[in-house]
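Lecture 7, part 2: worked example. A protein chain together with iron/sulfur cluster.
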Amino acid sequence: MTDQNRKAFIKSYGCQMNVYDAERMGEALNAEGYDLSDSPEDADLVILNTCHIREKASEKVYSELGRLKKQKEAGKEKGKELKIAVAGCVAQAEGKEIIARQPAVDMVFGPQSYHKLPELLKQSNNTKHVVDTEFPVEDKFAALTKRAPKAIKQRGKTAFLTVQEGCDKFCTFCVVPYTRGAEFSRPFEQIMSEAEALANAEVIEVTLLGQNVNAYHGLDKNGKEWGLGDLLFHLAETRPEFKRLRYTTSHPRDMDQRLLDAHRDIPEVMPYLHLPIQSGSNTILKAMNRQHERDDYLRLMDKIRDAQPDIALSGDFIVGFPGETDQDFEDTMDIIRRVTYAQAYSFKYSPRPGTPAADKATQVPEDVKSQRLTELQALLNEQQIQFNRSKIGQEMDVLLERFGKKEGQLVGRSPWLQAVYVDAAPEQMGQMVRVKITTAGANSISGDII
Ligand code: 5AD
Ligand code: SF4
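Predicted complex, written out as C-alpha cells:
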C-alpha cells in the first residue's frame, strides 16, 4: 500500500492550542497523501495529541493506548498495519517512558516537532520506535508559515491563529513551561501571512492563541515590537474580512493599556475576556508564584469593565492548592462574588511531577478538595445562569458553527461566546444571523432568527 490511500485519525485532548496543532498535523498528513478519518477503527495511523495539564488528562492517554494496542494486534492478524503516535504535552514530558509503558507505540513527538511529521513517518518505516522531543519552536513556525497558504483549504468560518507559545511565568502548579517551553512570540509577518490565508479561505472569526497570549511581543522585519493590542488594531484595520476577533489565554500581569484600548475602540474585538486568577487568597497567589495580589486583579477587572462595559468575564480556579485553608478558599469565593463571571473553569489541584507544588507536604485531602470544588462550582453556575438570563429579549449577532442534535437546529456563538441554539436551514451554516433570545439555561441560550 502506498501513502496515497492511507487514513489517519487524530484525537486531540486539552486546550485550544492542541486543536490548532492537530489541524496543522492534519494538513501535513493531507500533503503526504493521507485522508483524515473520523474514527480510529479504519485508520492506518492514529495520533493522540495529548494534554499533561492535570493527572486525569494524562491518564486518559494510557487507557486509549491500551485500546489501540488491541486494535493493532487484531489488525496484524488480518495483515493490516496500524501506526500509533503520541504527540503533544504528555509526549514532551514523558518521552521514551511512554514506549517503556506501552511498547505498541511507534512514534512519540512533542509540540515543537510536529511540523517534521512527514520526516518522522519516514523514519518510523525503518526504525522500531521514533522519539523526538526537541525544542526548536522557531523552526516549527517558520515551517508552518511556508506551508500555510497552500495548506489552508477550509477551516470553516472560525479559525485559531497561534501568535505566541510557551510560558516563562512558572506558576508552581503548572507543567506548561516544561512541556511547551520558553515564551516565544511569532514574528509579525508570519502572523499576517497566516491571517491573509485565513481571509482568503473566507474565515470571518479569528481567535489569536497563546499560552500567554497577552504577553505577545513579536518583532516585525524592521525590528519594531508589536504587542497583542497592536496586533488587534492592525488586524481590524487591514482585514475587514474578519468580523470577529478573539484571543486566549491571558495573564493578569500582561493586561496593558493598549489591549484595554482595543476592547474599548475596536467593534470587532468581542466582549469576552478569559483572565484566570486561580485563587482569591494572597497567601495562595504568592505560593502559586502568580506575581500579583487579589486587589491588582480586582482593579484590573474594573478597568476592563470601564473599557467595555458589557464584557463577559471568564476565569480559571484551582481549589485545594497545597496549604489552602478554609479562609483561603473563602477568599476565592469572595473574588467570584465580587467579579461575577459569565462563565469559568474550575479544577481540583492535581500534583504534576517536576513542578514545585507537587512536593509540598501540605497537600489538601481529596475529600476537602471535592467539597470545595462543589461549593465553588455551584456559585459559578448560578452566576452563569444569571448572565445567560440577562440576554433574554436581546437581539444579537450569532455565527452559526455546527449542527444541533435536533433536526433543523443549528448552534452558533454569541459575541459573549455563549452557545446559541436556533432553528435554521442547513444552508445557513457558517452565516452570521441576527437572533432574538427567548430562553436561557446554564450552558446555552436559544432564540429565533429575525
Ligand atoms: N492542577 C489543577 N489545575 C491546573 N491547571 C493547571 N495546572 C493545574 C494543576 N496542576 C489549571 C489552571 C490553568 C488551567 C489551564 O488549568 O487553572 O489556568
Ligand atoms: Fe502555566 Fe502559569 Fe504559564 Fe499559565 S502563566 S501557562 S498557569 S505557568
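The chain has a mean pLDDT of 94. The pocket of 5'-deoxyadenosine (ligand 1) is lined by residues 53-54, 173-174, 276, 278, 316, 318, 347, 349-350, 352 (CB under 6 Å). Keep this in mind for problem set question 3.
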